[in-house]
Structures are given as structure tokens and as C-alpha cells.
Amino acid sequence: MAQQRASFGSKFGIIMAAAGSAVGLGNIWRFPIETGNNGGAAFLLVYMVAVVLLGVPLMLAEFFIGRYAHTNTAHAYKKLSSHPLWSNIGFIGVLGGSIILCYYVVVAGWVMKYFFLSVDGTLTSLYQPGNAANYESLFGNFVSNPWSPLLYMLVFVLTCHFAIASGVQKGIEKLSKIFMPALFVILVVLVIFSLFAPGAQAGLKFLFYPDFSKLTTSAMLSAISQAFYSLSLCMGCLCTYASYFGKDVNMVRSAVSISVIDALVAVMAGLIIFPAVFSSGIDPQSGPSLAFIALPAAFQSAFESVPIVSYVVSMLFYALLVLAALTSAMSLYEVPTAYIHERWNISRKTATMVVTAVCLLLGTVCSLSMGVLGDMKLFGKNFFDLCDYFTTTWMMPMSGILIAIFVGWVVKREIFINEVTNGGTLRPTGANIMLFLLRWIAPVLVLASFLAVLGVL
Ligand code: TRP
């Protein structure tokens, strides 16, 4: 007799798990960096447009495939087509999701370390008015040390391991239902604190006042890839989660809700970070080190007169990052786990162990490439940057174009409409609008941006 397949227990659990996948380091760490580098509000505007025109329809496309096929991502596409071009899209997800996971856990480890540094008061004690040099050396010494980052990565990976091994309902869903509301409460508290920082207005202006002269082609492309990354698209996460959805879930509504939550969290992260950054006079374009060098300094300086506030704000901020990273990493973990579990018919626990072993191995190389293995370069990039570059620049857009064309043009319209309207019980308007976007807008926009990144356009 066929074994009963895992499933989510409630609609709330589904939204929390999928929003947990979407809301991650991408929103709180990557989004402010990209916004800072690309001129603030104008970038935010393009990002929002990309979420609506590309993000929501592609998310729905992944939901459709996952729930229709009711199996892991690698096999899901095979149920809808036997042509190798389409049937293998799922493999891009399994491979890409696994690569992202391997560097994601490294950054998540740093975040954990910084949470502890905020709790034990190190971040507060290192503060020197007017410069971030202490934080710079703290971060530099930490990431280039061979052991310490590995230890934190290990702790993070083991946490994910136990969550995933516990199963879809008892692990992923249960934790997401606790972590996501907690994350939201912390966000609101931090936004309130940050808005009261002296000089917060400059930060708000930067985030909300669009300067269109900064809107270069490359800024637009960054906004599109940021939207993809932030919504966890094209790497199998949402397709895998959707394979655990019940047949009564309104997938259009879920895709819209999850995208709104994700964009809201990104804007709230901006509301926390930019007022603090501007109030302390730090350059918002300080790049990936923003969260680990500029921000600890900014939080201390923004609340200089009340040190306890800066202590609490830093601590809450890193707690927020840890929670966000955990729920996202869980979704990345689930993609190869579900595949191995079903492909080789081995238990979920054993499958999780395989994923953990590979993740630890490649994660170690990623982590060491920030220090002792820094000279090991391919195409001028270390292993860590290579993993990010290869997945976000190549695999995500390629898989995005394929998914949009596949669902928009190759799969029979009736199959899509029937699945998305839950067998005709929901109104088809939403499904039709999404199908239109998948057919005409998404492939063109993603292809154009892909070609532009390659310098062809
Ligand atoms: N969306 C997550 C974030 O914002 C990261 C993530 C999870 C992801 N799954 C993904 C990114 C799949 C790309 C593809 O941090």
C-alpha cells in the first residue's frame, strides 16, 4: 500500500511556512544593501513592480506544479511533460537550491555569532563615536578565522537538520507558526525604535523619495533579481512546499498574501536600517558588510544617549536575522531532502542526513573561502561568491524563463485553470490574470534582464 505523503496541517501553517521561506536574509540583509547601492526609493519602486508582475505569477506557477504533481520538485515537472527541456526544470531547482543552501548557512552562522556578541555586550563595548574601525576588525578577524565561523555554521546546520528530520508538520510548520509571528513582533518594535532615532527623516527620505536619475538598467536588473531571491522563486522551494498543500487551498490568494508579507518585511527592514544608518552618518552604500560593520556602529550611535536602547536594538535585530534565516534555510533544505527521500525510497531521516553531510562539506569550503581558501578562485571569484553568482545570475533567471514558458504555453490551459480554481470551485479571474502575466510579461522581462546582465542587450 502506498504510504501517506506528508502534508501541511492548516492554511495558517501554509502561509507561515511559505512566508518563512520567502522572508529571510534576502529581505533584511540583501534588500537594504541593494537599495543602498541603487539609489533608494526608485529601486524600491521597480522592486515592487517586479514583485507584482513577475513574483506573484511565478510563485503561483510553482504552487500549481507542486500541488498538481504532488511530489518532489525534480519529479513534478516530469508529471506534466516528457520532453527533456521541460521535464528537467525541477533538477535545476534541486541543484540550485542545494547550492544556495551551502552559502546561506555560512551567513546564517555569522548572524548567530553576532546575536551572541550582542547579548554578551561585545557590540556595545566596541563602540567608538565617529568610526566603525573596531567593528571592521571584529568582522574581518571573525570571518577569516578558520574555526569560529565553522562552529556557528555547524550549530545552524544542526538546528535545520533536526527541524527537517522532524517532518513537514512537526518540524517546518510548527516552527514557522512560532517564528514568523515572533519575527513580526520584533520587526514592529524595531521600526518604532528606529523611527525615534535622531535624524531618522533622512533615512525615510532615502527610502521613500524616488530619484529617478539613479534608475540605471543595472539597478532595474538588480531589483528583478532581488525580487526573485527574496520570494524564494525558481529553486524548487515553493514547488516542494506546494506539494504538501491541501486541495482546498486558494493558491492565488496565498501567492498574493505571501508576496505582500515578504515585501512588507523588506520595507520594514529598510525602515529599521536606513534611519539608523543616516542618523549615524554612515554611508548607506557600504555593501555586504552593512549588517556586520556599519549597522552595529549605527545602532550604537543612533541611540548613544541611552545605551540600553542600543543594546536591546542590536540584540533584537540579530535575533530577527536568526529567525528569518532559519525558516528560509528550512525551505532550501526541504528541496533536496524530499527529492532524496522519494527518489531512493529511503526514510526522511536518512535523506536529511545525506543533505546535512553535503551541506556541511560544501558549507565548509564556502566558509573557508573567506579566509584560508581565499586564493582558490574560479572566474576571479572565491567559492562563496561563485555559489551566489552562479545561482542568482544564471540558474534563477534561466529557470524563471523556463517555468513561465512551460506553465504559460506548454501545459494545457485547462489543466492550469482547473488546478488553480480548485476544480472550478473558485472564480477563474485571478488564474486568468496570472496566466496572462506568465505568457506575455514574465518571459519577456526575465529574458531581457538576463540578456542585459550578460551584456548582450
Ligand atoms: N528567500 C530567502 C531570503 O529572502 C532565501 C531563499 C530561500 C531563496 N529559498 C530560496 C532564494 C530559493 C532563492 C531561491 O533570504
Can you walk through the features of this model?
The chain is 75% helix and 0% strand. The protein contains 20 helices and no strands. α3 packs parallel to α12 (217-230) and α6 packs across α9 (148-165). The longest helix has 37 residues, at 307-343. The termini are far apart. Tryptophan (TRP) binds at residues 21-22, 24-27, 97, 100, 229-230, 232, 235, 237, 328, 331-332. The site of tryptophan (TRP) has 16 residues, from α1, α2, α6, α12 and α16.
- Helix content class: over 70%
Structural class: mainly alpha
Gyration radius (Cα, Å) is 21 Å
- In N-to-C order, the SSE pattern is HHHHHHHHHHHHHHHHHHHH
**Form type:** globular
- The number of helices is 20
The ligands bound in this entry are: tryptophan
How large a portion of the residues is in β-strands, by DSSP E?
A: under 5%
Distance between the termini: 55 Å
In total, the number of strands is 0
Mean pLDDT: 93
Low-confidence stretches: none
Largest sheet: none
